[in-house]
Amino acid sequence: MERFRKISSVIFVFSLHCLSFVNCSSSKAYTIQYEPTLEQLVSETEEICLNRRLFIFSARPCLILRGEKDNASSVIQYYLRYEIGSFDVDLPLGISMKFGDVWHNLKKSATNYSDTITVVSLFTNEDLLALTSSSKMELSYTNRAKTENFKLSDSDVSKVKDGFVKIQRLLESEKKMTILKK
User: Could you give the CA distance from residue 176 to residue 182 in angstroms, rounded to a whole number?
Assistant: First the structure.
């Protein structure tokens, strides 16, 4: 009986460890985040992880679409956040996305360094139009040493397009914040 308990506890701990790789989504996905200090509203999609472990478990790198609505002007800008799975010692140069047969070089707007590197790139209106009308997508990340290319699966393409539409509708329907300035 004691041996059974030990084996079952090891299996339970191993299962929890494996399940931590399954869900790559953010709890902030598809909600409005108010940032009154920055005078903006923000909404993000769920993470879409581009690698798989054992063919079923999601793994980094991941991408997230992010929308930011300026409270004063109501202008909305959309960004791609590309999160690298491990600390990359080479300088990130940028992100490109292929929509259909055309590559779009996205304008890099920020690089965040923490436990991993996150490269943030701005979508232009032309990029967004291509994103919504494309049935095939690829992502290309380049640093000083190498370029990594990822072909998005049909389900990932659908998640990107649907996610963009969801955050677009959320941000467009949200009213301006009332901010008391002293």
Answer: 18
